[in-house]
């Protein structure tokens, strides 16, 4: 499979993006640029607008103002299928129709590359095999999705997005329902994908995993960006307090150099 | 990752000599491939789907021969085949060609149309209860068509009225479920309410006309193939052919509509547009079928259910559902014509008597497990 170099990766950015959820304005005037070939994590407290931002980036919801730009072009103007060859999305708590096997799910990733008279090519076969291998699912290829563990199931869904062969991958809380071991399975796969020339953007509710696995952090609160940059430079005690109203002690991971949150406790503002 | 360069060099070698690498179709499929001026083209056929469709077609053809053969005058199956080509005796020719064949066509086409409309609506709503019959579209079409039949100052042909009624009911159901979309119980409950109102309107219309007119219209309001308005069948055949073609063109999108909207959209499906197309198709098929046979909505539930229980879960069994619907309708009308002869039971009553217990069985049976 061809591995696009960073310079060839399309860029994803927003220009004074404003979005609402129902009648409530969730984000307003947001300008961000996502670093190509890196893992970006969007973090923040519940209701800060991080999932809404991701929905905007993936064109699931229409912005009320501003634009999302893919290589400088407004994504609202792109045909749906063309967008699906550039940008893959793993929504939160994705559900497969019952009885589908791992390989059958992964094959759906080829959808944007196929047509009525182009249903199964050598390329499709090769990419599906590659996606199975990349996600470490070769042994489980014919297993039903319903019969997998949480981590395996999430890897199967990511494998589907791998088969989509898009330079951009958006994940909405990919580890929210998983135990620690399964979370690591998923994060390592995500990291592996970024190393192989994909731009990954994920919404995470867990700041500690974001520090550990993201190259770039976007911290949001009440629809605004509070901090942006590499975790090691942007994560401070002040930021953690601003985001979650908690106090903590910051350490540095001796193995990876990423920030570690220790002794997290409630802020005692009024005693 | 270290193994990657090795893997990609192998793959590059493969792409340089594409003919040397055999393409294995996914498990359980046949792959038809050919080369055209647009490049290499391929179509996948699911083996199980082929078996199921051939089996259902065979069963349908057998049922059709029985249908043509049995009745107040029995014609032997071999004579039926001869009569189809006008080579049997005068009596058999007349019974088969003039009396039974048009009604067989009506049964098969309405069954296929109801079942196709059913599976489309179920897929759209991701709910196997959401068939046009249950969400009130049949009743809307019936009320409007009855209005034209009993002639309350309206003289538009029944198919046009049935289409208008189906559309009105669909608009009302969707309007009342506003905001909650086509998923969830609000949509179903709204549909049941709309259906009840239109059912009452039909009764009211019948109560206001002379008893003879009402009697003439009655079998049709419970679903019958005995009172087919002229021209309605021809329109239905046309609609069914176009509808099947459209549904097959939408097949890939339908398969993906079974996922959440976000997933389908991420895979390049224009969800809103496809939804609207599927909805319009389902409503139109229902309207055209109601114009011929009245509200036989149960077929829209039974047909897709048979097709799904025979098929794999990989796709949406469009043609299998249509064939199963045609089969059910032909058998039901055959039973209705012959069981209590010379009294004829309207086909809508037969399907309800069979379909009710069927529905209960679906609800009660243990969930089937997939392996």
Descriptive notes:
Chain A: It is a peripheral membrane protein. The complex is a heterodimer of chains A (271) and B (371). In chain A, helix 3 (102-108) packs parallel to helix 5 (150-163), helix 4 (122-134) runs antiparallel to helix 5 and helix 5 packs parallel to helix 6. Chain A has one domain (6-266): P-loop containing nucleotide triphosphate hydrolases (Rossmann fold). Helix content of chain A is 31%, strand content 27%. The N and C termini of chain A lie far apart (59 Å). Chain A has helices spanning 50-57, 80-86, 102-108, 122-134, 150-163, 180-195, 207-213, 231-234, 237-244; strands at residues 12-21, 24-30, 33-34, 39-43, 65-70, 73-74, 87-90, 168-172, 199-203, 216-221, 224-229, 246-252, 259-266. Mean pLDDT of chain A is 89; it is low at 1-5. Chain A is built from nine helices and 13 strands. Chain A has 271 residues and is an alpha/beta fold. Chain B is mainly alpha-helical. Chain B is built from 15 helices and two strands. Chain B has a two-stranded antiparallel ribbon with strand order 1-2. Chain B is globular and about 70 Å long. Chain B starts with a helix and ends in a 7-residue tail after the last helix. At the A-B interface, helix 2, strand 7, helix 3 and helix 4 of A face helix 1, strand 2 and helix 11 of B.
């Amino acid at each position: 499979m061809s591995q696009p170099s960073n310079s060839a990766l399309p860029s994803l950015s927003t220009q004074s993006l404003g979005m609402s959820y129902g009648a409530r304005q969730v984000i307003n005037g947001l300008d961000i640029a996502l670093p190509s070939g890196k893992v970006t994590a969007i973090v923040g407290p519940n209701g800060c607008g991080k999932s809404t931002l991701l929905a905007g980036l993936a064109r699931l919801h229409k912005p009320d103002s501003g634009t999302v730009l893919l290589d400088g072009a407004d994504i609202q103007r792109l045909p749906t299928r063309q967008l699906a060859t550039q940008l893959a999305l793993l929504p939160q708590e994705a559900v497969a129709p019952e009885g589908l096997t791992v390989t059958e799910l992964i094959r759906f990733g080829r959808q944007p590359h196929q047509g009525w008279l182009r249903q199964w090519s050598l390329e499709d076969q090769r990419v599906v095999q590659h996606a199975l291998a990349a996600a470490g699912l070769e042994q489980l290829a014919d297993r039903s999705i319903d019969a997998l563990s949480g981590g395996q199931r999430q890897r199967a869904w990511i494998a589907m997005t791998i088969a989509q062969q898009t330079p951009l991958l958006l994940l909405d809380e990919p580890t929210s329902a998983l135990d620690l071991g399964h979370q690591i399975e998923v994060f390592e796969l995500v990291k592996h994908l970024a190393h192989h020339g994909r731009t990954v953007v994920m919404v995470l509710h867990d700041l500690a995993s974001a520090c550990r696995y993201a190259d770039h952090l976007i911290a949001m609160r009440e629809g605004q960006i509070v901090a942006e940059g590499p975790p090691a430079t942007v994560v401070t005690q002040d930021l953690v307090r601003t985001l979650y109203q908690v106090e903590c002690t910051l350490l540095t991971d001796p193995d990876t150099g990423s920030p570690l949150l220790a002794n997290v406790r409630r802020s005692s503002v009024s005693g | 990752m270290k193994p990657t360069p090795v893997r990609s060099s192998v793959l590059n070698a493969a792409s340089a000599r594409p003919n040397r690498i055999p393409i294995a179709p996914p498990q359980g499929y046949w792959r038809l491939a050919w080369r055209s001026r647009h490049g290499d083209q391929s179509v996948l056929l699911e083996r199980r789907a082929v078996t199921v469709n051939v089996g259902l077609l065979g069963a349908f053809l057998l049922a059709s021969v029985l249908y043509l053969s049995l009745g107040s005058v029995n014609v032997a199956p071999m004579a039926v085949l001869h009569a189809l080509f006008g080579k049997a005796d005068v009596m058999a020719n007349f019974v088969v060609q003039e009396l039974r064949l048009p009604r067989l066509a009506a049964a098969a086409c309405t069954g296929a149309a109801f079942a196709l409309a059913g599976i489309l609506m179920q897929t759209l709503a991701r709910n196997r209860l959401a068939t046009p019959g249950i969400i009130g579209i049949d009743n809307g079409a019936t009320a409007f068509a009855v209005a034209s039949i009993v002639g309350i100052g309206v003289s538009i042909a029944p198919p046009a009225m049935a289409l208008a009624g189906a559309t009105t009911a669909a608009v009302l159901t969707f309007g009342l479920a506003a905001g909650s979309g086509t998923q969830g119980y609000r949509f179903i409950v709204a549909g049941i309410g709309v259906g009840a109102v239109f059912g009452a309107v039909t009764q009211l219309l019948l109560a206001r006309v002379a008893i003879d007119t009402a009697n003439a219209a009655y079998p049709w309001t419970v679903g019958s193939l005995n009172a087919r308005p002229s021209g309605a069948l021809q329109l239905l055949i046309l609609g069914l052919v176009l509808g099947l073609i459209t549904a097959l063109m939408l097949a890939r999108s339908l398969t993906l509509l079974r996922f959440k909207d976000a997933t389908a959209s991420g895979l390049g499906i224009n969800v809103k547009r496809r939804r609207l197309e599927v909805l319009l198709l389902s409503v139109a098929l229902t309207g055209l079928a109601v114009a011929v046979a009245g509200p036989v909505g149960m077929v829209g539930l039974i047909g897709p259910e048979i097709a799904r229980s025979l098929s794999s879960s990989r796709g949406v069994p469009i043609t299998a559902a249509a064939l199963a619907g045609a089969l059910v309708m032909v058998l039901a009308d055959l039973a209705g014509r012959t069981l209590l002869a010379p009294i004829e039971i309207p086909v809508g009553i037969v399907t309800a008597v069979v379909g009710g217990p069927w529905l209960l069985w679906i609800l009660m049976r243990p969930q089937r497990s997939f392996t």
